[in-house]
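Appendix B. Raw example, untouched.
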Amino acid sequence: MLTGSWSIEQVRGQAGIMLFQDAPYLRLTDTSILKSFLIRNSIDLSMNKSQLLYKIADAFSLIPYENLTKIIKSDAVVNARSAMRYPDELLGDYLRWGSGGTCFSLTACIIAVYNAAGIEAHPVLADRHYGPDTHCGLILVTGGGIHLLDPGYLLFIPTVLPVEKTVTVETGYNCIELVPILNGEKIELYTVVKGNRKLRLVYKSAPVDAETFERAWEQSFAWEMMTYPVLTRVSAGQHQYIQGNKLSIRTDQKTHRTELTPEMEISYISKNLGINIDIVKKAFGVISNGRS
């Protein structure tokens, strides 16, 4: 059992993992795609590691969480493993179409970018109310300590991994509390909105090897959320969230909820989340035909 604080040696020793990932779904192979992404976000790999830590996280905050591309690809291939969108594909599609991914593909991609920048990153799994290992995030190992990020839950502020004391993160539209339990072996994530505190998920702090991560990713293709659109992103201090035909827009002051027709939803996603309208229409075609 861990006590006091996580050390770099403990992180690497938990799963016997190497300094950087070499699994194909955790690394980038197309340097031109990486270069285009870095240029778009004014990221220079000669920056110091602390700058890169935050610049890369900021760049990924612009990529939407969306399951439309996952639904489209899952419909076009024979099995879940073939439907996984590796980092080259996710970044290339983002640059071309403005699309993003879900927690596993986003986490795999940001790990690949950090590793390409010389920053050690490893996946961690999390449990949600509908089952174990149904979410993921990543930890970053630097000279400044062990940090947690979660692109799937829009936690884009590198946050020191808590071991003994609760860590609070203000996002601008809510407050996230990271509460360590079992001497930091697990981390509970709570959201606090206008005094309403709710447990959302529980991270397992120990990093997992690539095969364990891949297995959890593959199982995600059987979830119910593959049958309806789920998208979320923060823009200009607003948290935009779509589930099914319901749209919620949250600020630090209020939440506005509305129901959208399919036509309204397609238009909103394209105009406000920046995803190419042809991609959106294709996904809605799959959903409406009951093939996802």
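End of appendix B.
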